[in-house]
Write a structure and sequence with these properties.
13 helices; binds 2-keto-D-gluconic acid; Rossmann fold; five-stranded parallel sheet; alpha/beta
């Protein structure tokens, strides 16, 4: 179906399964990074597609006059300037659905790790302290009796909510709009939600509208028994305010899978006993990452075969074949 003469650029690192398939199904061109300064006129004139797992800014998009589609590895595409892409007739796709349940599983694991201190209890056993000092101390927190708020009730938020329901806990949420057909209580503001619950799980996407949304005020509203879990994007949190809130007892504990400047985690968070930290592993199983890689390449294949990608992002849903050249 696909044409091996179609040049698809892979700037920076990408999942090996996606790289292998692109190599078989297209004319793959690798570039060390997504830097417009690396783009030669010859390259600029050839590239029609991109498969990316890195930051793609407007200048990099503009460097390729024949570019038609950017297939992003990941459901979150805040690193790709999709608004700009849409405005110049370039399609952007992401990888929803195939990672939903995996990320929701991880969110629950992280919540339990945070509340019941399971990683610390295991470290206690491995360090021989069970023998030398006795039982691991009782955890200050429990999941029992908690009221859970979800910030970002999209597909992953809903999958987490279903799991929380099965744990017997009430769920409410904050989204810009109410989600149809969902019986959970909606709050029109994040602050309102934080004030109504004691456990806040953020699944919110990155970008200007959520930048540092979880701030000192929100954490104060969550309160001294508060638990904050972030499985969405680090940019949605004021990390210094969070570290301060954990240190001074404004909230009880936090579980974080994502950070503002990954892979760098602020010392102020690393040094905290009441923060459970994971290295962005939400979707990181062999099975799910392979499915994401397949969806990246399936989007490219569908676009070049029919002009209809499988999972276009909202900002480029209007883009049709020929939109770029017509400009
Ligand atoms: C991945 C994610 O870690 O899909 C996302 O938005 O954050 C994760 O599934 C990400 O794609 C980077 O590999």
């Amino acid at each position: 179906m696909t044409d091996e003469e179609i040049a698809v650029l892979v700037p920076g690192a990408l999942h090996p399964h996606a790289v292998a398939r692109i190599g078989r199904e297209f004319r793959m061109i690798a570039l060390p990074s997504a830097d417009a300064a690396l783009v030669t006129p010859e390259l600029a004139g050839r590239v029609r597609g991109m498969a990316v797992g890195t930051t793609i800014d407007a200048s990099f998009i503009d460097a390729f006059p024949r570019l038609e589609i950017i297939a992003n590895f990941g459901v979150g595409y805040d690193a790709v300037d999709a608004k700009h892409a849409g405005s110049v007739g370039v399609m952007v796709t992401n990888t929803p659905d195939v990672l939903t349940e995996e990320v929701a599983d991880t969110a629950i694991g992280l919540l339990l790790n945070t509340v019941r201190e399971l990683p610390k209890a295991e470290a206690w056993l491995r360090a021989g302290k069970w023998v030398s000092q006795g039982n691991y101390p009782l955890t200050r927190a429990t999941l029992r009796g908690r009221r859970v708020g979800i910030f970002g009730m999209g597909r992953i938020g809903l999958a987490i909510a279903r799991r929380i329901e099965a744990f017997g806990l009430p769920v409410s949420y904050y989204n810009r709009r109410t989600v149809e057909g969902v019986g959970y209580t909606w709050y029109p503001s994040l602050l309102g939600l934080a004030g109504a619950v004691d456990t806040l799980i953020s699944v919110a996407p990155g970008g200007a509208s959520t930048e540092k949304a979880v701030n000192r005020q929100v954490l104060e509203a969550l309160g001294p028994n508060g638990v904050f879990v972030n499985i969405g994007r680090g940019s949605t949190v004021d990390e210094e305010a969070l570290a301060q809130a954990l240190a001074d007892g404004t909230i009880l504990a936090a579980g974080l899978d994502v950070f503002r400047n990954e892979p760098h985690v602020p010392e102020s968070l690393l040094s905290l006993e009441n923060a459970s930290l994971l290295p962005h592993v939400g979707s990181a199983s062999v099975q799910t990452r392979t499915a994401m890689a397949d969806l990246v390449v399936d989007n490219l294949a569908a676009w070049f075969a029919s002009g209809k990608p499988l999972t276009a992002v909202a900002e480029t849903a209007h883009v049709v074949v020929g939109a770029r050249s017509a400009r």
